[in-house]
């Protein structure tokens, strides 16, 4: 039985960095590239791809054939891919749980900085205390809090300006049973120099640097993309790298309300650059992916389709509804729910 999993399990390097370290990514793993490519061109159709095509596409990024095949095998073992014999080829596609989670993750990326930025002025406060002898459990709790966007105001007091969702509450309960208390509270200003602003719990300059670095790196290409001058391998590589870098930003930025941010906060501009590049390169990148697949198999692959950011938002809701419907049907029939 395929176990439903979360986006951080599909991209394990994201959860491995759940301490939200403010560091620059130095490159993409073959694993991350494979998942990004499959999500970008097959998640809408769950198209089957011969392993030779996946190997060829990863080769566009300098991944050796051996490393590519190892990556495919590992993704299949972890339940991200499912295999089938398609004619003379061994073919793979995203499993249904992986497609749903990647679609929902894509929707979050597409929605970055688009929702009304209203804030009720309340903070979620997590206070905990654990004996020194439980250092492993304490580290796990802190990693969980960071993954959900919290930051330490003090050693045992962590804060977030948003409500904690049901998944987060369940994880906290499992990790810190009997040792944690959660509040929703309003910050009260004190007329003293020792008063600490809650926003100071986050390293805002480091987050801003990530956005600024993204903008500075990719903005110079916008005019060439608008002119249709980026095609072929360059279109595929650029579009994939832009997604692979930008999808990490929500892990670094806990989406603090704009009213709490310094003037000129670059989140919105970074999204504008991402959308212009990702959507602007959709057609030439799709054309190149189809051409690589046709070269390897000798047949057209019309089911390989790029999607825009707007389509990412739409397909996520459809996939989530389909996944829920499928699980409901399994439960109604008495069959075990699978991917």
Explain this structure to me?
Helix content is 52%, strand content 11%. With 339 residues, the chain is of the alpha+beta class. It folds into three domains: 7-107 and 302-329, Winged helix-like DNA-binding domain superfamily/Winged helix DNA-binding domain (Arc Repressor Mutant, subunit A, Orthogonal Bundle); 122-186, Alpha-Beta Plaits (2-Layer Sandwich), CATH 3.30.70; 203-297, no CATH class. A four-stranded antiparallel β-sheet has the order 5-6-4-7, with no helix packed on it. Strands 1-3-2 form a three-stranded antiparallel β-sheet. β5 and β6 form a beta hairpin. Mean pLDDT is 83; it is low at 1-8, 13-26 and 322-339.
What is this structure's SSE topology?
Layout: H1 7-10, H2 12-16, H3 30-42, E1 49-50, H4 51-59, H5 65-77, E2 81-86, E3 89-94, H6 96-111, E4 122-128, H7 135-147, E5 151-154, E6 157-160, H8 166-175, E7 180-186, H9 204-218, H10 222-226, H11 232-246, H12 249-252, H13 267-280, H14 282-297, H15 309-333
Antiparallel strand pairs: 1-3, 2-3, 4-6, 4-7, 5-6
Helix pairs in contact: 3-11, 4-5, 4-14, 6-15, 7-8, 9-13, 11-14
């Amino acid at each position: 039985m395929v176990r439903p999993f979360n986006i951080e399990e599909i991209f394990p390097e994201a959860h491995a960095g759940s301490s939200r370290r403010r560091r620059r990514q130095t490159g993409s793993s073959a694993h991350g590239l494979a998942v990004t490519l499959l999500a970008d061109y097959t998640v809408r159709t769950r198209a089957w791809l011969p392993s030779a095509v996946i190997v060829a596409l990863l080769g566009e990024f300098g991944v050796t054939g051996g490393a590519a095949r190892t990556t495919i095998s590992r993704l299949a073992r972890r339940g991200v891919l499912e295999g089938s014999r398609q004619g003379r080829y061994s073919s793979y596609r995203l499993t249904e749980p992986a497609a749903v989670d990647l679609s929902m993750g894509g929707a979050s990326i597409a929605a970055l900085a688009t929702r009304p930025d209203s804030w009720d002025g309340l903070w979620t406060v997590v206070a905990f205390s654990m004996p020194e002898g439980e250092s492993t459990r304490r580290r796990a709790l802190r990693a969980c809090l960071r993954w959900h966007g919290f930051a330490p105001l003090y050693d045992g007091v962590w804060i977030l300006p948003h409500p904690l969702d049901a998944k987060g509450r369940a994880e906290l309960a499992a990790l810190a049973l009997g040792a944690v208390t959660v509040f929703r509270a309003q910050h009260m200003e004190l007329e003293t120099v020792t008063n600490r602003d809650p926003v100071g719990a986050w390293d805002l300059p480091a987050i801003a640097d990530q956005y600024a670095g993204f903008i500075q790196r990719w903005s110079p290409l916008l005019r060439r993309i608008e002119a249709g001058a980026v095609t072929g391998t360059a279109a595929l590589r650029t579009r994939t790298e832009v997604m692979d870098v930008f999808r990490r930003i929500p892990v670094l930025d806990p989406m603090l309300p704009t009213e709490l941010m310094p003037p000129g906060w670059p989140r919105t501009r970074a999204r504008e650059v991402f959308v212009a590049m990702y959507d602007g390169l959709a057609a030439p990148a799709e054309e190149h992916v189809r051409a690589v697949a046709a070269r390897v198999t000798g047949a057209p692959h019309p089911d390989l389709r790029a999607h825009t950011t707007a389509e990412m938002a739409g397909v996520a809701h459809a996939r989530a509804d389909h996944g829920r419907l499928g699980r409901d049907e399994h439960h109604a029939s008495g069959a075990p729910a699978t991917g």
